[in-house]
Amino acid sequence: xxxxxxxxxxxxxxxxxxxxxxxxxxxxxxxxxxxxxxxxxxxxxxxxxxxxxxxxxxxxxxxxxxxxxxxxxxxxxxxxxxxxxxxxxxxxxxxxxxxxxxxxxxxxxxxxxxxxxxxxxxxxxxxxxxxxxxxxxxxxxxxxxxxxxxxxxxxxxxxxxxxxxxxxxxxxxxxxxxxxxxxxxxxxxxxxxxxxxxxxxxxxxxxxxxxxxxxxxxxxxxxxxxxxxxxxxxxxxxxxxxxxxxxxxxxxxxxxxxxxxxxxxxxxxxxxxxxxxxxxxxxxxxxxxxxxxxxxxxxxxxxxxxxxxxxxxxxxxxxxxxxxxxxxxxxxxxxxxxxxxxxxxxxxxxxxxxxxxxxxxxxxxxxxxxxxxxxxxxxx
Length: 380
Description:
The chain has 380 residues and is α/β, with parallel strands linked by helices. The protein has helices spanning 13-18, 45-49, 65-78, 89-97, 114-127, 139-145, 168-178, 192-195, 230-243, 249-259, 262-282, 305-314, 344-350, 366-378; strands spanning 2-3, 82-86, 105-109, 130-134, 150-156, 183-187, 205-209, 223-227, 286-290, 297-302, 319-320, 330-332, 356-360. The chain folds into 2 domains: 7-259, Aspartate Aminotransferase, domain 2, CATH 3.40.640.10; 262-378, Aspartate Aminotransferase, domain 1 (Alpha-Beta Complex), CATH 3.90.1150.
C-alpha cells in the first residue's frame, strides 16, 4: 500500500509514467533495483514496536520497495489517494469486493469479463450477497434498481467484449445522489488512465488487470486497485495483507518498468487498431465491427462460422491466445474462452456468439497484421 503525494497530480501522465521509480532509491539508482528480500531488519526495539507500514519495511507481504514504488505511480496516474498492487486481476476484483457483507447487494453492468460473473456467483452461493445487472442504457433504469442494501455499482467501460462505453460521470452522479455511501467501482483495464481516469469522473474505486496494458509485455500476472476515499484504505489494507494476494517484488519491478512506456504504447495500439478497423469494415467476410474509437481492443463478427475456424487456425503473425493488451497481437473467441462461464442466454442476449472474435491489436506493423488476417481468411 502506498499513498500518492498530492503535488504529483500537477505533473502530466507521460511524466508520471516515465519517472516511475526514479528518485526512489536511497543510493540514487535511476532504475529502482529489485529487492528480493522477504524480510527486513529492525534497527531498534522501539522502531519495531512503533512500526509504520507506510514508511518502513518489515515483511514483504506487507510492503516492499518495488511494490511501494509501483503503487505510488499507479495512484498518481489514476488520481487516487492510495494504490494496491496484487498478484492478479482477479485478486484485484476480490479486494475491491471485500467490503461486501452477507445481505449486501451489487449491481453490475451486464457485459463484463467472464471471470467477474464467476466470482459474483461464488459470493452469492457462499456469502449470501445478492447481484443484479444493468444493460448500460438508461441511467434511470439503473437508479430504479438501487435499494437500501445496494453497496456497489460495478462498471467496465468499454465493456468486454462488446465495447459499450458508459458515462462514468453520469452514473456516479446519479448513484451518489441516491446514496453517497454506494461505491462506484470501474474496471479501467481497456482504456488505462491514458484514455480514462474514472476517479476524476466521480467513481470511488478503479481496478485493472495489470496483466494487460499496464504491463503490456505478456510476461507478468498482476492486478491493481486504486482508491479515492481514504476511509476505504484501512479496510482494504487489512484484507490485502491478511489474504496475502500482494504483488511480488520482481513482478512489481517489471510492472514499474512497463509503465514508463504506457503512453507511447497506447498511442500506437490505437493507431494500429484504427487502421485494422478500416480494413475490417470493408472486408467481405466481416459482418460487423465493434470499436469505441480509441485503444487497442477490437471485436468483430464474421459472416460464417467456418470463417472463424479458418481465421483462428491460420493466423501466423497474430497469436490465437487469451489475454490482451500486450505488444504482441492476440485473438480470442469469447464465447468459448473468456466468457465461457457466462450463461448461454446472457451470451446470446449480449451478442457474444460463436461468430464474434476479440482482437487485441499489438505493436506490430499494421500492414502486416492486415495481411495476416487476409491470408488466414483466404486459406484453403
